[in-house]
Design goal:
The protein is mainly α. It contains 15 helices and no strands.
């Protein structure tokens, strides 16, 4: 869909990648149409990092030019994720690559696992800080020395200030606004359904988090699944949702085995995308499961 948006001009695609976030010609609107269905196919890219991790770990089993081609492709995906300014995307690429690499690696190569884990950890820390600084102005302008005015006096490290948002929600619910109840899980479940198919699909929560913290329409805020669950039913809902996530994670971990095939490792590692992304928002969990489901269907057919 990105190549279509730039008339299949690859250099234009690279140019737009380093521009400010949401300025790219392939950026979809808040409410998608039939064209947005093509954009959603981008979710398949989340299968690429774990594939790269598996092939790199078992590179002795593949021709060298295969390994080189795959790693170059993975580096380009990392570049795309980094320039997007969306940290959970970039971190998801790194984690699923690392999980695929770790479980495909032979037990005797522990030093390689330690080295790869250290590299990924450093990249996560650097990206968490740097991507927040350039995403509004674009990587190109950032490298040329452009900075936002407020960053000149910024002395603290913050990511999304989730605790502030959650505290604001506690002030609002249920004293000023009743709990949303099943509205929250309902919207999470129906989120993967394309609006092009369901014209009357709800546009969002009846009570916006942005209004609760005074952000209005200026920007979006994140409160993780904790804040969203609290909006649904208070501390009891937070406990229930946290328990469900823990139970699902425990069940998923049982699928890990040294006897897994490369395909089995791919499916297992791809599931970590949903785990990582759901820490930012409960609403994207069901959508984040789609790459794993697609991998199961396509992979089972091919195998």
């Amino acid at each position: 869909h990105q190549l279509v948006a730039v008339s299949f001009n690859g250099s234009d695609g690279i140019f737009w990648m380093v521009e400010p976030r949401f300025s790219q010609p392939w950026t979809r609107g808040r409410l998608g149409d039939w064209k947005a269905l093509l954009t959603e196919l981008m979710l398949l890219v989340y299968l690429a990092p774990p594939i790269a991790g598996i092939i790199f770990a078992r590179r002795d089993s593949y021709p060298k030019h295969y390994v080189v081609t795959v790693m170059l492709g993975f580096m380009f995906i990392l570049f795309y994720g980094f320039t997007s300014g969306t940290r959970n995307v970039f971190v998801s690429f790194l984690i699923t690559f690392l999980i695929g690499h770790a479980f495909a690696l032979h037990g005797k190569r522990k030093k390689e696992l330690v080295a790869m884990s250290s590299i990924c950890a450093v990249l996560v820390i650097v990206s968490t800080v740097m991507m927040l600084q350039f995403r509004q102005i674009g990587l190109r302008n950032y490298l040329q020395g452009v900075r936002l005015a407020e960053e000149a006096t910024e002395q603290s490290l913050h990511v999304d200030l989730n605790l502030y948002t959650i505290a604001s929600l506690v002030d609002v619910f249920p004293e000023k606004h009743s709990y949303l109840g099943l509205e929250v899980p309902y919207l999470a479940i129906i989120r993967p359904i394309p609006r092009a198919i369901w014209k009357g699909k709800p546009e969002g929560l009846s009570a916006r988090m942005e209004d609760a913290v005074g952000a209005g329409e200026a920007w979006t805020v994140a409160s993780s699944f904790v804040g969203e669950s609290y909006m649904a039913g208070g501390l009891a809902a937070v406990f229930i949702v946290g328990g469900l996530f823990g139970a699902m994670a425990g069940w998923w971990n049982k699928l890990a085995s040294p006897e897994n095939s490369d395909f089995g490792i791919l499916i297992y590692a791809s599931g970590f995308f949903a785990a990582v992304i759901s820490m930012r928002s409960l609403f994207v969990f069901t959508t984040a499961l789609l790459p794993t489901i697609a991998g199961l269907i396509i992979g089972s057919y091919l195998v």
